[in-house]
Amino acid sequence: MDTRIMYKSTIASAQEAYDYLDPTGNLTLKWDVISWTPDGYVAVVTMTNFQMYRHIMSPGWTLRWTWAKKEVIWSMVGAQATEQGDCSKFRGNIPHSCEKNPTVVDLLPGVPYNQQIANCCKGGVVSSWGQDPSAAVSSFQLSVGRSGSTNKTVRLPKNFTLLGPGLGYSCSQAKIVPRTVFLTSDGRRTTQAMMTWNVTCTYSQMLASRNPTCCVSMSSFYNSTITPCRTCACGCQNNSTCVPSDSTIQSVVGLNTPTKYNTPLVQCTQHNCPIRVHWHVKLNYMEYWRVKISVTNFNYRLNYTQWTLVAQHPNLNNITQVFSFAYKPLLPYISANDSGMFYGVKFFNDILMEAGPDGNIQTELILQKDKNTFTLNKGWAFPRKVYFNGDECMMPLPDDYPYLPNSAPKNVIGLSFVISAFFLLELLAFW
């Protein structure tokens, strides 16, 4: 069966603008009209990322909409419109943008203070809510003209589009909501917006990419074979669109610069994925078992900043220790506690470098056994699902999972015996 068809059939229901591991996750745009002007209003637009493990990475978000009437943007603070448009009808003061469909981007860090407001100027990078709520907000201010200057004459913008930084988000129509209440810095007085409306954007992996963007490989201490990523897991490509693994670094210099939408340039592999996650069942103790997770970047164009890794496994409800990664359990439902989010430690491994010698990160987990459920049989020790940066990774087929020696074919019984003996020696050395 075609890999792309299988991919669609396995994850379409979970990713069509709904993620069952993050059922309330969305990105909300809130427009607060804070004052009226002679021909319009001044508004603060706040973008809050309520997604637990999906963030917006460099080169950042891009926001578009369509004005309902003939509005213009007189000025902006904390962001800018990418095009001014045709402002030839104006004399004297020239608007910041006269576009009917303006495109707005965040300002870069380090802009002058008179161009900044709170939560702006981060190059459009927005953290996920699960990683860092304080960095999951981005804001800008704009002064709108020719729009009407009362609640009854203002018309809400339409057709919102969010790129984060590529495709994947679908946005609702703007909806008037109760006006936002603000508290002064001394905490003794409250004010409120003149008018507030919200736009909710949800993510669909099927809209973002026709193919998966990562894959999973597996191995174990009890089997000498390695289960690789599936062939063409992220789509097949010819050799002219990938970089041979034996190429020197100099041969890709100039190509390893980010594109506008992070179009990957990957190393030639049988899976053709920018990211590979490897799950290795390392050791089996009396009361615990140990797993090693490695993430390898095959993309020559991109450093993955503030990356996230999500795994779904029934024993994650009893994780004891995580080395070198930060960990947070995901609890989307009261009855389920089988999912967890891993992410980098700041200034240590929160950046997954581009393809090359430094393009990998790894950690180890120690999990306590529940003797009523724990087994190494039938692939139980391997994850049910894996997500990288919010996108579901292509898993191996169940028949390809590493098998226990006692279920091996006759021609590998001798090898299984050697592996079992090695495992016993490991246990004796530990105890």
Automatic annotation (TrEMBL):
One of the Pfam families matching this protein, by short name: COB_C
InterPro entries per the UniProt record, alphabetical: COB_C (IPR056900), COBRA_pln (IPR006918)
Location within or outside the cell: Cell membrane
Protein name per the record: COBRA-like protein
Keywords: Glycoprotein, GPI-anchor, Lipoprotein, Membrane, Signal
Lineage start: Eukaryota, Viridiplantae, Streptophyta, Embryophyta, Tracheophyta
Main localization of the protein described in the UniProt heading: membrane
Record's bilayer topology term: Lipid-anchor; GPI-anchor
Gene Ontology annotations of biological process type: cellulose microfibril organization; plant-type cell wall cellulose biosynthetic process
One GO cellular component, as annotated: plasma membrane
UniProt entry tagged with the keyword Membrane: yes
Family: Belongs to the COBRA family.
